[in-house]
Write a structure and sequence with these properties.
- The protein is about 35% helix and about 25% strand.
- By secondary structure, the chain is an alpha/beta fold.
- A 7-stranded mixed beta sheet has the order 3-4-5-2-7-9-8, sandwiched between helices. Strands 1-6 form a two-stranded parallel sheet.
- A hairpin with a 2-residue loop joins β3 and β4.
- α2 packs parallel to α3 and α6 packs antiparallel against α7.
- The C terminus is likely disordered.
Length: about 210
Amino acid sequence: MFFFRPKRRHIDIIITGLGNPGPRYAHTRHNLGFAVIDSLAKDWTGESKWRTASDYLFLEGSRNGKSFILVKPTTYMNLSGNAIRRVGRKYDLSPDRLVVIHDDLDVAYGKVKMKLGGSPAGHKGVGSIAGRLGTLDFHRVKVGIGLEGIKGGEHYVLEQLNDTEWAEFEPAIELACEGLDIFVTKGASEAQQHINTLGKAAGYEQGGRG
């Protein structure tokens, strides 16, 4: 007996923002990946209603002649890799065309950094993706939540922020979106240079926000 296996669709760029689903987590530091990709979706597609798939929400489109898919895992952070694995079953997923956006305790508060590969450094969402894909060789856009004297932990990353505290991340979210637009139009190296040059100046100095 032969089973039909559908051909995977080619997509030029896959961008996923990490976070936890539901209003309980909306304005938490751990959901900054969702915040960036929501802003990106609005800028690139004008859509606010995401399409539903098993383990993730998604939007498709094209920009500068390149096809893209934006992905929000609905598995909760620690199982993000399950969602990306499912995306890879439907689309032709190559790690060098995958960008993962997430919060990062090792980057100073409100600053932004982009890199290819590297250790998950304890970030369970990134670790889950790396484990399911069998590689760390994908692009990462990191939004910094690190403060001197703050070790992190569940309470810190899942703490609900008020409107003023959340607004502190708006420049970082905007810069991340700018860099991702450059990623699509000009490529990874120029996007990384843009984010890492301006990202050092964004946000607050390590050790305080005021």
